[in-house]
């Protein structure tokens, strides 16, 4: 394909699942930014947030993304907050095509309410926290080249849809 694809979107939207399928269909390499951060630090995401805090996590996230973003034929599943850093948004846009996956807050809550691996939702009122985070990031997700709604679609359908969008966009650019 000769480009990179960056999947952005709120936690629970399906970036990792869809990214793996997309990479397979497009014959590209798959990169999960959170797993790369865990490998780089030797800590799980939960441990990072508990021991070092979100600020330190964001610094590592920025470094790992900057070291790996460019090149060709990569699909990245990013963390939901990667868009908070303007450098990350600029880097992803300069190194590939950014696709935002979106879902309704109700869909996200259904997917996340029983999860124990989402440190930003560890609060007394997790649904309120989810709403606040979603509202904080929603406009940043809209900066993506493409916005794909995931509600009511299978991961396979979504991977196919993204592949069509990116291929059509690349044909137009040629």
Features:
globular, 174 residues, Rossmann fold, 5-stranded parallel sheet
Detailed description of the structure:
Helix content is 55%, strand content 14%. It contains eight helices and five strands; from the N terminus they run βαβαααβαβααβα. The protein has helices at residues 15-26, 33-41, 45-51, 54-68, 86-95, 105-112, 126-141, 155-173; strands at residues 4-9, 29-32, 74-77, 97-102, 146-149. The protein has a five-stranded parallel β-sheet. With 174 residues, the chain is an alpha/beta fold. It starts with a strand and ends with a helix. It has one domain: 3-Layer(aba) Sandwich (Rossmann fold), CATH 3.40.50.
In the sheet with the most strands, the strands line up as 2-3-1-4-5
What's the CATH architecture? 3-Layer(aba) Sandwich
Radius of gyration: 15 Å
Q: What is the H level of CATH, i.e. the homologous superfamily?
A: P-loop containing nucleotide triphosphate hydrolases
- Taken from the alpha-carbon principal axes, the silhouette is globular
Number of domains: 1
Count of DSSP H/I helices: 8
Please give the alpha-carbon distance between the first and last residues.
12 Å
* Topology pattern, helix = H, strand = E: EHEHHHEHEHHEH
Q: What's the overall average pLDDT, rounded?
A: 90
Strand runs, count: 5
């Amino acid at each position: 394909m000769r480009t990179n694809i960056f999947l952005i979107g709120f936690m629970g939207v399906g970036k990792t699942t869809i990214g793996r399928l997309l990479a397979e269909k497009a014959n590209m390499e798959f990169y999960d930014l959170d797993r790369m951060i865990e490998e780089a630090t030797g800590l799980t995401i939960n441990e990072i947030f508990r021991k070092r805090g979100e600020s330190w996590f964001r610094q590592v996230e920025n470094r790992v993304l900057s070291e790996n973003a460019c090149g060709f034929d990569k699909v990245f599943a990013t963390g939901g907050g990667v868009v908070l850093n303007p450098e990350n948004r600029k880097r992803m846009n300069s190194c590939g095509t950014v696709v935002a996956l979106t879902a309704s807050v109700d869909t996200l809550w259904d997917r996340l309410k029983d999860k124990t691996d989402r440190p930003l939702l560890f609060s007394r009122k997790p649904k309120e926290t989810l709403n606040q985070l979603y509202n904080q990031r929603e406009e940043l997700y809209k900066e993506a080249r493409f916005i794909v709604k995931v509600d009511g679609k299978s991961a396979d359908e979504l991977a196919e849809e993204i592949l069509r969008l990116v291929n059509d966009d690349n044909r137009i650019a040629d």
